[in-house]
Amino acid sequence: MRNLLSLALAALVLFSCSPSEEELMKAGIEKMDSQAWNEAIGYFDRALEQNPGNATALNAKGVALFQQEKYQEAIPVFTLAVEADSSVYKPWFNRANANLELGNFKEAVSDYNMANGLDPAQTDIYYNRGLALLGMEEYEDAILDFDAALQVNPNQALVYFNKGKAQVGNNDPLGAMESLTNAVNLDGRNAAAYYLLGVTRMSALGEQEKEAGCADLKMALSLGYTEAKSWIEDFCE
Fold first, then answer.
1. What is the pLDDT of residues 100-121, one digit of tens each?
2. How far lies 232's CA from each of 137, 207, 210, 219, 224, in Å?
3. In terms of C-beta density within 10 A (0-12 exposed, 13-18 middle, 19 or more buried), how is residue 165 classed?
């Protein structure tokens, strides 16, 4: 009887020490905060053993994989999160981001559209979808998304830079020059923006903008953008 009682007490102790799904999720989030991605995944996997349909755990696990640049592995995890709860924008947005990183632009745009429909207030969607549309050479739609992002915060150098790229693709060199000028004014270290600005000036306006274009190209080169060197040698010396 005493042995049976001891075994029962031991089982009770073991049971009481087993962390709950909520405790495992909390521990996983804490590991995410300290960027201990694999440890976080371990906690989320344990939570999923208790509840395979935990959409939050699935999304968080996908994010931990994404942060390690394991985009291909992250996508099916985000898909499970979407299947577990399709009413939340986050797994749609995160799966879109993974596809964007992989160059799967069409799939990314489709998921960004879903995320945007579920929560239009999430303005990051506009910029990221703009990047995917730019990758698809859908320049007009990309410009619309970049403009939407700039309406929320007009002080975003990268948004202006990518809007300028879209405008170049859309045969709007004057608009591109304005956007790229905004980009370099906001971020004077963006060598690629200086390069594209210089090339656009000289390609679109020739001698009229040669001096300013050469100055942009020389700035790009000074910042390490070596592709500017051939333009400088051919047109500025």
1. 999 999 999 999 999 999 999 9
2. 28, 14, 11, 11, 14
3. buried
Smallest CA-to-CA distance from 70 within 49, 94, 53 is with 94
Nearest to 224 by CA among 195, 199, 186, 183: 195
pLDDT digits (tens, 9 = 90+) for 64-83: 999 999 999 999 999 999 99
pTM summary value: 0.89
